[in-house]
Amino acid sequence: MQEHKGFLLLCLLFGLGLCAATYQEQGGGSMVGALMLVLLIGLMGLALLLVALIRVLKRADLPWPQRLVPLASWAVPLLVSYSLSSYLTRLDRVPN
């Protein structure tokens, strides 16, 4: 796990940024600010995906469960952000 420590930290920051962008989008914040934030986070996510795939393919000395840690750590923030978005959308649709 030590070899993945920096990558896991970047994935955590990616997830926090995704959640912040989702919350800002659902909260009705500035359209331009939200677009810039989503664009920046999207590019960061794409770069992290490429790094995760390269790490999975290059680390042939590790067993498969350990090789898939970067890919799983990249996918978990996406699932959390999707869950947050669904929850906030459901809260918006509940009649008061």
Order of helices and strands: HHHH
Query: Which blocks of ≥5 consecutive residues have pLDDT under 50?
Result: none
Estimate percent helicity: over 70%
Radius of gyration: 16 Å
Dominant shape = elongated
Fill in the keyword field for this structure:
single chain
Walkthrough of the structure:
The chain is an all-alpha fold. The chain contains four helices and no strands. It has helices spanning 5-27, 31-58, 64-67, 69-93. It is elongated and about 55 Å long. The termini are far apart. 14% of the residues are buried. The mean pLDDT is 78.
Brief description of this entry?
The protein is mainly alpha-helical and 96 residues long. It has helices at residues 5-27, 31-58, 64-67, 69-93.
What does the secondary structure layout of this molecule look like, with pairings?
Blueprint: H1 5-27, H2 31-58, H3 64-67, H4 69-93
Helix pairs in contact: 1-2, 1-4, 2-4
